[in-house]
Design brief:
The complex is a heterodimer of chains A (1096) and B (65). Chain A is 61% helix and 9% strand. With 1096 residues, chain A is an alpha/beta fold. The longest helix of chain A is centred in the first third of the chain and has 21 residues. About 2% of the residues of chain A have low confidence. Chain B is α+β, with helices and mostly antiparallel strands and 65 residues long. Chain B has one domain. The model of chain B has no long low-confidence stretch (mean pLDDT 90). The chains are: A alpha/beta (1096), B alpha+beta (65). The interface between A and B is medium-sized, with 21 and 16 residues.
Chain lengths: 1096, 65
């Protein structure tokens, strides 16, 4: 993020000679003449239309224009010129987008899209993206026509990315037929034998089933329920409409009828069992909303593609931020919500409800009340509920259905009987209607039904099946185990050729079948009806049922619907085949963040079978680790590692073996990073990096990241930083937001510890900028991982003596992490906060922050480095308060003593110890310790610590009367501090070193020292400023302040003594101290001055 | 052993679906005896009852023996 680069929005043209390479092989001379003419025309026209040619790529040219209109005019003129005399075959693509100029290259979304659009075309045409076309609307000199939406290779990650492509239709420009274009058209409801799907990633796995997002129009016999519509309409003022009733109460029909009749904008999502996965669930919800707002949710989707778990709150914030900008009211309908049992999804959804903008109204259709804050919504009047009693048909409606709609001529008494017997349950009534078809004796049937004790559905389904032909009956039973039905699928499963006709006949006859797309290719049975049929099928011989599943699985596999094929394989427990298919699928799922689904599959499969499959083991183990199940993951990784080694030893030719070895090593390093053995981690990292390459930037980056963490644990800060830098380079290539963020934060923290404040701060600013530019501003404000980033920025600002900005940053950090579970970042933030408050003279608050740390540390174990930070700061605090005995006891308790080796982890507590020794006037001991600490720091190039120890040493030398050495130590510390202008280590001990500093400044003036002048000026200026600022100057302790407060309250000395449980003499001596510090000579003046300085 | 009582007479062919050891009737009620393996199993059974829109009258744990 540090490179010099320029980003701009431009009209981008990509033009390519068609067939010139082939021509080159046939007739070199002609080919180069063509190229020369092409270039000539190009240069000429670009000059004319103020375009800028950026680069030639063989037969291709990339150029940019400031105006879209200029670009199109230029393209038209080029094509026309090239058609004269001997025509030159050229394709042109135009797009309006971001383009980035680097030192060496040009790239960006704009370039990619223009080039892809160009490659769709045919010779003589000019194709433009929808975005560019928008700019042409008011220009009568240019005419265009739409060719439809196209999924652009390597760009279209989901349906919203499909780009609408237009052709320029001006005279002399060829307009291709949509079918002539080379790309894949992606229509939002495309029809095929296969499911209407939209490819969610390049490998084509994890497709979205558009049938799940289709609003099924109710059948012709639907009773429109205007009274209920009115009740639903009141929901347009609330957050949630809850339609909660058992199966068969007409929930789906009611809501879809309402939406269609009243033309209410709505996103519809029919949930199924595979949606108990946060990533999957969100993908579908986002894709559903994209039906209304095509660009919606891309950032959130990208965020889900994370090798680790992302906080649901952050993702929801990213989504909400976008939703707020949508002006129109619309519904988000979630059908069959009772299927959702996954806690993660429910948490996510609870957040969603909480923050949902007032323009969006959720409609939940469910058989059971969901585990969401329903009561809260009810009390806030944000809920409209429809329940079974509201939904059930009244006698009037039953009369209407049977007599008006179906014309069955039931008498009043029959209607009454039906009302009582069915209690208005719609599924029952509809089965009755079916059973009555073609019967003369309606009343007799109803009387018999009324008098029967059997479960209504058992009774009715038999009546209905009885009147079907044996063939239809068989069709219904055998297809009941298919979740979705299509003609070709049913043909394959039942060995017949006419399934489509049967399905259409069933739909016409209203036999509980619902169409799932506008083309009537896909259907499903009503769930309850399917359950009843299935039960009748399952009492048959098991082998017959198994065969049906097996055939369905084969069909789905052949039609690239692998997840559905796997579902059927699990039904018949064909685990061997299932894992074979899963092996192909699992990496894509992992990339998409579908962790819960991988765990679900893994838990269903027998462990022994998984262990024989290294590839599945790899991803299963990884998601187990991120879910905290490290113990459970270990054996899978171990067997995968062993098996892969064996395979290599046996010379088995398995594709991508090397990559697999590398990825497994990354996973093993990841696993061991929780067990804290840096040597083992580093060994795995070596294997990983030996076997992986930049081709797998995500893995390669993770490998380097693991090296960085392990080196840090090994106290090799430099090596760690180098590794993290590499990790960041590849992380950026992978484009994975989570990875980039994690690495950049770790890197900035490292660089801070190395004293490279400028680099560290800039890196942090760049990361925030990068996230904002890419639409993740909301993430920064909500995700606690950024607490560390802001704490580091606050610390740097503090050491730059910019306390106001430091305060701003630390407040953000504090707010981000204080309610989160991550203790480590909490302690870090609290230490920085407390140091900062102390620096501002707010001792009371500073002490409160220390107490806050202690509460956390009493209950939790934190990273030893941070524990040390706390110990170091608390001891420093005690020393600064002149509580030397307490400080010593505290450090004793944490085994701090001189004369033993010190690890990097413990360093902070020893710095405090040195301060204590100095305060105790044990200068020799302090000197020894400080020298040891300096050696440690300088060996690792840790500038921060080098400055601090040199400042301390200078104070020690001064105390023992060696002024020469004191001066030279201080000069050294200043020279370390100069590069990144680190001020605070010197300012904090100003009262002791100021005379020395002034002396050095004088020498500086006579050019004896080589310190950079701007740094010296800055330091001088800050010293002057601090002299004038009040609170920091008077080194008041907490006790001093207590006394001041009481003094201001007009208490006598005796009263103060009583209040503080100290003797009268102590009070007197304390007040005397206070007068000296405040430079006053009486009580009243002390109070007055304290008020002036806002000390009380 | 758990005894689930629901309203109306459920066809004996449901026995397998419900994992039931026996299905018998009393008045207008169906009494199913089921060996419940764990809570998840029980919830599965209750969901099935819900999905079929059957009315639960009672669910009782029977003493072993």
């Amino acid at each position: 993020m540090n490179e010099k680069k320029v980003r701009q929005l431009a009209a981008v043209m990509f033009a390519d000679l068609v067939g010139n390479t082939a021509l080159m092989q046939r007739d070199e001379k002609l080919a180069s003449t063509v190229r020369a003419r092409h270039r000539e025309v190009f240069q000429q026209q670009h000059k004319l239309h103020q375009g800028k040619i950026i680069q030639y790529y063989g037969d291709g040219v990339l150029s940019v224009f400031k105006s879209a209109v200029d670009a199109v005019h230029c393209a038209i003129d080029i094509q026309r010129r090239l058609q004269e005399d001997e025509p030159v075959a050229l394709r042109i693509g135009l797009h309006l987008g971001d383009i980035v100029f680097d030192k060496s290259e040009v790239y960006g979304d704009g370039v990619n899209v223009a080039s892809r659009i160009e490659s769709l075309g045919v010779a003589g045409c000019i194709l433009v993206s929808g975005k560019l076309n928008d700019e042409l609307k008011n220009h009568t000199t240019i005419s265009t026509t739409s060719l439809g939406h196209f999924a652009l290779k390597n760009i279209a990650d989901n349906i919203a990315d499909a780009v609408e492509v237009f052709a320029i239709t001006n005279e002399g420009i060829k307009v291709p037929e949509p079918t002539e274009l080379k790309g894949t058209r992606s229509l939002p409801n495309k029809t095929s034998d296969v499911f209407p799907v939209t490819s969610m990633n390049r490998s084509g796995e994890n497709k979205v089933l558009l049938t799940k997002l289709h609003i099924s129009p109710p059948g012709i016999q639907t009773v429109h329920r205007t009274e209920l519509f009115e009740k639903l309409a009141t929901g347009l003022k609330t957050k949630l409409m809850l339609i909660s009733a058992p199966a068969g109460f007409g929930k789906t029909t009611l809501v879809s009828d309402w939406i269609i009749q009243q033309k209410i904008p709505a996103a519809w999502y029919s949930i199924d069992t595979s949606d108990n996965d946060a990533a999957e669930f969100l993908s579908y919800m986002i894709t559903a909303i994209q039906g209304l707002y095509p660009k919606f949710g891309e950032n959130a989707l990208k965020l889900l593609h994370s090798p680790s778990q992302i906080s649901p709150e952050s993702i929801i914030q990213v989504l909400i931020n976008e939703l707020i900008s949508f002006p129109k009211h619309f519904l988000v309908v979630l059908d069959d919500f009772h299927i959702i049992t996954n806690r993660e999804v429910l948490t996510l959804f609870t957040y969603f409800i909480e923050f949902i903008p007032p323009t969006i109204h959720l409609v939940i259709l469910t058989r059971a009340d969901p585990n969401l804050p329903i009561a809260k919504l009810r009390s806030q009047h944000q809920l409209v509920e429809l329940r079974a009693t509201d939904l059930s048909f009244s006698a009037n409606e039953i009369h209407f259905l049977f007599n008006r709609t179906l014309k069955l001529k039931l008498n009043q008494e029959d209607v009454q009987s039906l009302t009582i017997k069915t209690e208005g349950w719609i599924a029952g009534l509809q089965l009755i209607a079916l059973a009555l078809q073609g019967r003369e004796d309606s009343s007799a049937f109803i009387q018999a039904f009324k008098g029967n004790n059997r479960y209504i559905m058992d009774y009715l389904i038999e009546e209905v099946l009885k009147i079907q032909t044996p063939e239809t009956k068989e069709f219904l039973l055998q297809t009941s185990l298919l979740e979705q039905l299509s003609g070709p699928l049913c043909d394959a499963v039942l060995d017949r050729q006419d399934s489509q006709t049967v399905l259409e006949m069933l739909e016409r006859n209203n036999v509980f079948i619902i169409s799932l797309d506008a083309e009537r290719k896909w259907f499903r049975y009503h769930h309850l009806f399917a359950d009843l049929l299935k039960q009748r099928l399952l009492v048959r011989e098991r082998s017959a049922v198994m065969k049906l599943h097996a055939k369905a699985s084969v069909w789905f596999e052949q039609n690239q619907q692998i997840p559905l094929a796997i579902e059927h394989l699990f039904q018949i427990q064909d685990y061997g085949k299932a894992i074979e298919l899963l092996e192909e699928l699992v990496e894509g799922m992992w990339e998409k963040g579908h962790h819960t689904s991988i765990i679900k599959y893994g838990d269903l499969l027998p462990d022994e079978l998984i262990k024989k499959n290294p590839r599945f083991s790899l991803f299963y183990a990884w998601v187990l680790i991120t879910a905290g199940q490290i113990q459970k993951a270990a054996p899978f990784l171990a067997s995968a590692e062993q098996l892969t080694r064996q395979n290599i030893a046996n010379g088995a030719a398995i594709p991508d073996q090397k990559k697999l070895v590398g990825k497994l090593a990354v996973a093993l390093a990841y696993q061991h990073s929780f067990m804290g053995k840096p040597e083992i981690i580093l060994a795995y990292c070596r294997t990983a990096l030996d076997n992986l390459s930049e081709e797998d930037p995500l893995w390669f980056s993770w490998g380097w990241y693991a090296v960085g963490r392990a080196q840090l644990a090994n106290e090799n800060l430099m090596e760690s930083t180098v590794a993290l830098k590499k990790a960041l380079v590849f992380g950026k290539k992978s484009g994975n937001i989570y990875l980039i963020t994690t690495i950049a934060i770790a890197l900035a923290f490292n660089e801070g510890r190395l004293g490279r404040y400028n680099v560290s701060y800039q890196r942090s600013v760049d990361l925030l900028e990068f996230l904002k530019e890419n639409g993740y501003a909301a993430l920064v404000k909500t995700d606690w991982t950024f607490a560390v980033l802001f704490a580091n920025m606050a610390a740097i600002k503090y050491f730059w003596a910019d306390l106001d900005e430091a305060t701003e940053n630390i407040k953000i950090a504090y707010r981000l992490c204080i309610h989160e579970a991550d203790m480590t970042s909490k302690v870090l933030v609290l230490v920085v906060y407390s140091v900062l408050l102390h620096g501002q003279g707010d001792l009371v608050e500073a002490e409160l922050k220390i107490k806050e740390m202690e509460v956390i540390l009493q209950k939790n174990k934190v990273n030893p480095f941070l524990e040390s930070m706390y110990i170091g700061w608390k001891a420093t605090w005690l020393v600064s308060q002149n509580e030397l005995e307490k400080a010593r006891a505290f450090l004793d308790m944490h085994d701090v003593e001189t004369g033993k080796p010190i690890s990097y982890l413990e360093e902070y507590r020893y710095i405090a110890f040195a301060l204590l020794l100095m305060a105790e006037h044990k200068m020799e001991e302090a000197y020894g310790l400080l020298s040891q600490l300096y050696e440690m720091a300088s060996a690792q190039g840790r500038i921060e610590r080098m400055i601090e120890t040199k400042v301390f040493l200078s104070i020690v030398f001064l105390a023992i009367g060696d002024k020469e050495k004191a001066l030279s130590s201080l000069t050294e510390s200043l020279s370390y501090a100069a590069t990144d202008e680190i001020l605070m280590y010197h300012l904090n001990y100003l009262e002791r070193i100021n005379p020395l500093l002034q002396e050095i400044f004088k020498k500086q003036a006579t050019a004896e020292s080589k310190l950079p002048q701007p740094f010296i000026d800055k330091l001088k200026y800050t010293i002057e400023k601090r002299k004038k600022s009040p609170s920091a100057h008077f080194k008041l302790t907490t006790r001093d302040r207590e006394a001041l407060q009481l003094l201001a309250g007009d208490l006598t000395n005796q009263e103060i003594a009583d209040k503080l449980f100290i003797s009268l003499n102590t009070v007197k001596s304390r007040l005397k101290d206070l007068y000296v510090k405040l430079e006053v000579d009486s009580r009243s003046k002390a109070v007055e001055k304290a008020k002036q300085l806002r000390l009380i | 052993m758990t005894e689930i009582i629901i309203q109306e007479h459920l066809d004996p062919t449901w026995e397998k679906h419900f994992d039931a050891l026996s299905i018998r009737y009393k008045d207008n009620l169906t009494i199913m005896q089921i060996e419940i393996k764990d809570q998840a199993h029980l919830h599965g059974i209750l969901n099935l009852i819900r999905d079929l829109n059957l009315k639960i009258i009672s669910v009782n744990r029977l003493e072993a023996g």
